[in-house]
Write a structure and sequence with these properties.
450 residues; alpha+beta; 2 domains; 5-stranded mixed β-sheet; two-stranded antiparallel ribbon; 10 helices; 69% helix
Length: 450
């Protein structure tokens, strides 16, 4: 008597729960909710009134209606397996009530078989519910996986579009930077002819090979990474066509990393070009904040490669010890650059001459070295340029700052380098001094006020 209403209530709750998953806000959900309250009301009415025996037919009818609804409407396809589990118990219950009501004598004989059938039906119901629960969990997991795959596909599609836009932008940027770099090189070559015409800029003629060497390095990087990026972009297209978004993203990261390198070397070449253009201009006499360490390092390498271009056999060690705490100081960068260039050229020339002399003597242990250092003390900046060349003889030490005085062979020096350097440092309120030991070293010391 209690089995049917409990079973009906369970089925109503189960159907409503299933609808919430697969078809929320359905009209059936409201009907099933009201039906659940109706079942409770009928059960209370059965227990408190004299219609107790007549209610069994209503319960059986409701069970049959529920079974019919689940098989009639496609909305309940997902719960039919449970109804297959309930159906045997429902038929047994109806059969039991019919036999008990109309064939009481026969019912007494088969009562124990009907009870056994009930046990089998309940066992069947439990086993099917357990199986259905497992299947439902598997279905939910598969549904979740499908949803995640769909979201992943949407994300990949979105990323693909973004990557294509990014690749197009990066490619256009690479092409633009390459064109600007080639244009900068063209402008530098045009400027070179004008620089050599000025006596004050005669030293820049010696820098031509050094500039070309310095600017060729970043240009080679730009060309090499551009070719690599072209290959990577083709690989990424293939990966996208083969629906391998992870590999495509990895390749795109490589392209971005290469682009950053190209950008870095493009800026490096741009800095070299700007520095040389600044060097070529007539000094405006206006001081501006300048990084002394960067300026010295730039001209040191340009001077070295300029000498290397004229004499491939020459090699020297460049050592630097820059004080990184030095802030930018106000100087005329074109003029200070010319001072550095003159001192570095003289240092490499001295070590080169000593190397040739030592080689003629059969001494191959000599290692040309130029050492440049900076430091700050007492509101001053000190720059030292030291070489282990032949040094300066004492008899000419007092003459080195005189205009047109030179120890170089005719045609190799004008004698204006140190004279001009001395005047430039003096205009900046500083000093230019020299320490030397003949046959061992020379060291020029610049002091500039902060």
């Amino acid at each position: 008597m209690f089995l049917e209403p409990v079973l009906i209530y369970f089925l109503l709750r189960y159907l409503r729960s299933s609808l919430r998953k697969f078809s929320p806000n359905s009209a059936w959900e409201r009907i099933l909710t009201l039906s659940s309250f109706g079942i409770i009301l009928l059960f209370v009415l059965q227990m408190t009134t004299g219609i107790r025996h007549n209610m069994i037919w209503i319960w059986d009818l409701i069970l049959l209606v529920l079974v019919w609804i689940t098989f009639k409407f496609p909305l309940f396809d997902n719960v039919r397996q449970v109804m297959y589990a309930v159906l045997p118990l429902t038929l047994i219950s109806i059969f039991n009530h019919i036999v008990e009501r109309f064939f009481s004598n026969f019912y007494d004989n088969i009562d124990q078989y009907i009870n056994f059938a009930f046990c089998i039906g309940i066992t069947w119901l439990i086993s099917v519910l357990i199986k259905s629960s497992k299947q439902q969990k598997a279905l939910d997991a598969e549904r979740k996986k499908t949803k995640e795959e769909e979201e992943r596909r949407k994300f990949i599609s979105s990323q693909k579009d973004q990557l294509e836009v990014l690749v197009s932008e990066r490619t256009a940027e690479l092409v633009r930077q390459k064109e600007e770099l080639q244009q900068a090189i063209s402008e530098l070559r045009e400027t070179q002819g004008q620089l050599i015409q000025s006596e004050k800029m005669a030293s820049l003629g010696e820098l031509t090979a050094g500039i070309a060497h310095e600017i060729q390095n970043p240009l080679n990087f730009v060309n090499n990474f551009s070719e690599i990026n072209s290959e990577l972009l083709n690989e990424m297209k293939n990966e996208l066509l083969e629906n391998n978004p992870e590999e495509a993203i990895s390749i795109a990261n490589d392209v971005i990393e290469n682009e950053q390198k190209i950008n870095h070397h493009g800026k490096r070449a741009d800095a070299i070009v700007k520095g040389m253009l600044q060097h070529s201009r007539t000094s405006s006499g206006q001081k501006e904040p300048t990084d002394i360490n960067a300026l010295a390092d730039e001209y040191l390498r340009l001077s070295y490669h300029g000498l290397r271009a004229k004499d491939k056999s020459f090699n020297a060690t460049m050592e630097t010890d820059f004080d990184q705490t030095i802030q930018k100081i106000k100087v005329i960068p074109q003029d200070i650059g010319r001072v550095f260039l003159n001192l570095f050229n003289n240092a490499f020339y001295a070590t080169n001459q000593k190397q040739k002399a030592e080689s003629e003597k059969g001494n191959l242990d000599y290692k040309p070295t130029v050492f440049v250092s900076t430091r700050q003390y007492d509101n001053k900046i000190e720059i030292r340029v030291r070489d282990n060349g032949s040094g300066i003889p004492q008899k000419i030490l007092d003459k080195i700052y005189q205009p047109f005085f030179t120890t170089k062979p005719t045609g190799e020096g004008t004698g204006l380098g140190l004279s001009m350097s001395y005047d430039i440092i003096k205009v900046h309120g500083g000093t230019l001094n020299v320490k030397t030991a003949e046959g061992e070293f020379s060291e020029f010391i610049i002091e500039l006020p902060l």
